[in-house]
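Memo to structure team: turn this sequence into structure tokens by end of day. - J.P.
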Amino acid sequence: MLKLIKLEYRKNRAWKYLINALILTFILGLFVFSIGFFEDASPGSKETVGFLIEMITSMAFLVFTGVMISSFIVSAYKNNTMGLMFTYPINRKKILISKVIAVWIISFICLLISKLIIYLSMYGFSNILEPKMPLGYNLSYISFYTYMIFKSFTTVATAFLALPIGILLNSSKAVIITSFILLVFLEGDIGDFSLRGNSANSIILSSIILTAISIFFIIFSIRNVDKKDLV
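Reply from structure team:
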């Protein structure tokens, strides 16, 4: 399995995603900095810099992971390279699982590092400038890192909700479009209602539910791959 994952990284030039993640981190960091330090918070607003970081990184990497799913998995079906791989004396499910794990690992690591860089940067700037909104996090708390890891894991998991749609329609564009739709539904608000929840407990619960649904979708996409004929 490890050899298959390494092969996926070489074949898809994983280094370019790492570079893109760093560029994305820089852009997101500038956005958080401009909002957190220069834009006056709305009266009575409970938003914090920490909340802003979690929201925009989740939005950005939901699409980022969707792009990777499209490149690593769906494009392989579309370009018929998956059919070539399925001729190898390796179990088809193992091949597809290795692709899923490859995407999951690199997306999770990129998101985690991105968050950490932005969190540390905002904390450092807060010692120089007075932020317009409270930081809302403490780097010395273990719970801070636990929540950051948990939220990063579930964000990447949620992105895989687009996988069966991409495979079913045999379309990379469908994955990207679905990722944007997920972004709107998960991070957007309808009045006072939000799928992500409005409290820490509801956010955790919704993240767990979405992760469970996503894992079910992954299993659904993989379970019949041995019987599926690729045309």
